[in-house]
């Protein structure tokens, strides 16, 4: 073939169809990579999260509220307990508890002021997230908000507390104050930065300390308990002695009071006896004087004329009058009676003279 003749040109494909097979492959590759990405993302999630993403109908349990993310963005929608609908794959849902819950923080190591390492095995924090602050709290700190404001905060506060107190103080002296101090510290920061979190109480278990130190503390506690028992026994003894002395003093006072009452009664009886004797003596003297005066008066009255008058009066007062020849012998002649009375008056006069 002559080299000067023009070379036949190889037919070229149409310009518009160049690369058409490459574009189709790129599209297939993109779809394949998308499926791989979705598969990898699903493999990295828990089964419950996968079911959550695939489900349309979901249930919010009692004591919780439903919170939703769409494309990774937290939504303002908050649902109450019950059944609700969402878009699968697009909307993600999480239940958030709004009632009381207890978070247990375990294994908290800390060093005391003297450099001794101790460990708090468990600290329980009773807390609650208020429903009105769910969106703001999750927006700022995520669903695991308690990791920031309870778990991490407890570790920090316990270490701060231990570093400023000795082992004696942490383990014995101020142990009963740790719970209140932790509650105040947690609530103070939550009120400032996460006002929706309310700390109800903090319960702290006894920390674990080195065995040798614990043995020393036990011995110290035994000695202290022994001293306390001895002190209580001494106090009881003193109280018993004091009570006995008090009872003895009371008995002595009561006895003295009774003796004084008896002596007072005796003196009163003596006075009454003296009064009685004086009164009886006075009555006897009065009676003697009266009898004496009556005797003197009778002496003056014992005259024949007076006796005769009395005899006549007695006869006049007699209600019986006798008539007839014979008169009873009791009625005597007045002259005989007069002579008798005169003789009687002389005899009485003679007796008085002889006695004088």
UniProtKB/TrEMBL annotation:
Keywords: Endoplasmic reticulum, Glycoprotein, Membrane, Signal-anchor, Transmembrane, Transmembrane helix. It holds the Pfam family Band_7. The chain crosses the membrane at residues 21-43. GO terms for molecular function: cholesterol binding; ubiquitin protein ligase binding. It is a single-pass type II membrane protein. SMART domains: PHB (SM00244). Residues 55-221 form the Band domain. One of its GO terms (biological process) is SREBP signaling pathway. InterPro entries: Band_7, Band_7/SPFH_dom_sf, Erlin1/2. It is found in: Endoplasmic reticulum membrane. This is Band 7 domain-containing protein.
